[in-house]
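Support reply, case 0932

Customer input (verbatim):
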Amino acid sequence: MDADTIRDVFRSVDLLRIRKMFGGQGIYQGDLMFALEAGGELYLKADAETVETFRSINSRPFTYTAHNGRAMEMSYWLMPDACLDDEDEAARFASLAVQAARRAQAAKPAKARAKASKKST
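Our regenerated output:
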């Protein structure tokens, strides 16, 4: 998925930034990563408050194979196909993901937050 398509899907997100990473792309609001693109699919940050929303629509988490051959699951869940065609749905799910990313960032110790902030500059 190219950057223009990603920007179109997330047109409701202010300060949108896209960075290439791990063979895919990290999608940020400012310095906050709230989504990722991998294999042409978009995944949104989820947490304990939002994961049931994703489960209820039969979404699935992003997984990758680690060096030891084990499948590793991340806290990013597949964005519903409806979001690709419906600006309001895309905005709703993007908002859920941004909120989950903010909660995750706030839960990190201050030292880790400062280190992450330095990396993104």
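We compared this against your earlier run and they match. Two observations from our side: Strands lie at 16-21, 24-29, 32-38, 41-45, 61-65, 71-78. The radius of gyration is 14 Å. Please reopen the case if you see a mismatch on your end.
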